[in-house]
Automatic annotation (TrEMBL):
Pfam families: DegV. Signal peptide: none annotated. This is EDD domain protein, DegV family. InterPro entries: DegV (IPR003797), DegV_C (IPR043168), DegV_domain_contain (IPR050270). It comes from Corynebacterium epidermidicanis. GO terms for molecular function: lipid binding.
Length: 270
């Protein structure tokens, strides 16, 4: 039986892909108290139960677990705790990621698993995809993310002071300010410029994830299709409700998987 691939709902994977590749999604939690939404990661007990079920399904061929950045949630730490119960049968990747970069890594591993690849081979495929991935976030407003505590005070202050439409980037698992813009149009132009430069003329996979911003997401994809290399592929999906609580309405997350690591590309260019 194949290796089982587990991720959480922050991967933003569409349901048809989840079904096709037989990926297991562990949903993160959204709670509401007095009308105010809050979120919680997966507990070690919950993850232990998920991994045990998947090991049983895979006849102990192994489980590969990919969860959102440990800088954004307690889920990764709890996943490591849960995996210790199963010795070497469960491998947890320190992804430093979220969104469809995480989803793309799960997809790469699941495709190999379906062909009978080993746990180690699936692990390497996922890590390779993560190393070639970046996540950018366009925020219509920064208020929700600032209240969530997912920004450092310095970054929150800079974003508020300098940018009414900031572009954030997930770097080393943390959200940092990537560009400051004044309008949505300028933000999209800047975002496409950044991605095009880092793609260096090579095809890329782009996943546009939106929350109450479908028309803006369509416009962004049209702009990307006109600029990025032919052969690039695109996917549009909704942002997971847990991430939506922190990013707020009107937000768009863009996950990019490059043909090679963007850091490697920058090193070559020096």
């Amino acid at each position: 039986m194949p290796v089982r691939v587990v991720t959480d709902s922050s991967a933003n994977l569409p349901a048809d892909i989840v079904e096709e590749l037989d990926i297991t999604i562990a949903p993160l939690h959204v709670m509401s108290r007095s009308g105010v939404a809050s979120t919680a990661g997966l507990t070690a007990l919950e993850l232990t139960a998920v991994y045990a079920r998947q090991l049983e399904r895979g006849h102990d061929d192994g489980v590969l677990a990919l969860h959102l950045s440990k800088e954004l949630s307690s889920t990764w730490t709890n996943a490591v705790t849960a995996s210790a119960v199963f010795d070497d049968s469960v491998r947890v990747i320190d992804t430093n990621s979220a969104g469809m970069g995480l989803g793309a890594a799960a997809m790469a591993a699941a495709k190999l698993a379906s062909r009978g690849a080993s746990l180690g081979e699936c692990y390497e495929a996922a890590v390779d995809t993560l190393e070639r991935s970046e996540l950018y976030v366009y925020l219509h407003r920064i208020d929700d993310l600032r209240r969530s505590g997912r920004l450092s005070p310095a970054t929150a202050l800079m974003s508020s002071a300098l940018a009414t439409r900031p572009i954030m980037m997930l770097k080393n698992g943390k959200l940092e300010l990537a560009a400051k813009t004044r309008t949505q149009t300028k933000a999209f132009i800047k975002l496409v410029e950044i991605i095009a430069e880092r793609a260096a003329g090579q095809p890329v996979f782009v996943a546009i994830q939106q929350h109450e911003a479908r028309e803006a997401a369509r416009h962004l994809q049209t702009t990307m299709e006109a600029v990025l290399a032919s052969g690039s592929s695109y996917l549009t999906t909704d942002i997971d409700p847990v991430l939506s609580v922190h990013l707020g309405p009107g937000s768009i997350a863009v996950s990019v998987v490059y043909s090679q690591s963007p850091d490697a590309e920058l090193s070559t260019a020096k």
